[in-house]
């Protein structure tokens, strides 16, 4: 089945089910449904900025989760009634949080640290 796509500056900007008047809508061509120009319109690749934002959002979410997981353990330490295992857990969570802060989200595949065992 054919579709009609409008291409402006080498980029597919519109899709139509039927031919269009070239006086009204210039740059419309007929293509098959498996044409890469049509498929790129249906399934656009994220921009570098969107990829960076997604990685930063993941980092922020992991930092928040780590902070929430650390709170009860650090409260026990501050109150002076932490068990030995809570003290070990607090150090592990601190190390994980510090490693998360150091993650470079500008690289293609950030090295995400593994959270401590619960």
Explain this structure.
- With 118 residues, this protein is an alpha+beta fold.
- The chain folds into two domains: 2-42, no CATH class; 48-101.
- The protein has helices at residues 36-42, 48-79, 84-101; strands spanning 2-8, 11-16, 28-32.
- The chain has a three-stranded antiparallel β-sheet, covered by helices on one side.
- Helix 2 runs antiparallel to helix 3.
- The model has no long low-confidence stretch (mean pLDDT 94).
Question: Which helices and strands, and how do they pair?
Answer:
Blueprint: E1 2-8, E2 11-16, E3 28-32, H1 36-42, H2 48-79, H3 84-101
Antiparallel strand pairs: 1-2, 1-3
Helix pairs in contact: 2-3
Quick synopsis:
With 118 residues, the chain is of the alpha+beta class.
Largest sheet: 3 strands, antiparallel
* Sequence of strands across the biggest β-sheet: 2-1-3
First CA to last CA: what distance? 55 Å
Mean pLDDT equals 94
* Low-confidence segments: none
Search tags:
48% helix; 2 domains; alpha+beta; rod-shaped; 118 residues
């Amino acid at each position: 089945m054919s579709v009609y796509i409008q291409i402006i500056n080498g980029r597919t900007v519109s899709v139509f089910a039927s031919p269009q008047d070239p006086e009204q809508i210039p740059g419309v061509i007929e293509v098959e449904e498996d044409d890469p120009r049509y498929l790129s319109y249906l399934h656009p690749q994220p921009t570098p900025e969107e990829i960076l934002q997604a990685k930063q959002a993941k980092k922020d979410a992991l930092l928040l989760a780590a902070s929430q997981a650390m709170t009860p353990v650090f409260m026990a330490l501050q109150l002076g009634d932490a068990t030995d295992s809570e003290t070990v857990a607090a150090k592990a969570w601190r190390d994980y949080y510090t490693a998360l802060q150091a993650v470079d989200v500008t690289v293609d595949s950030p090295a995400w640290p593994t959270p401590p065992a619960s």
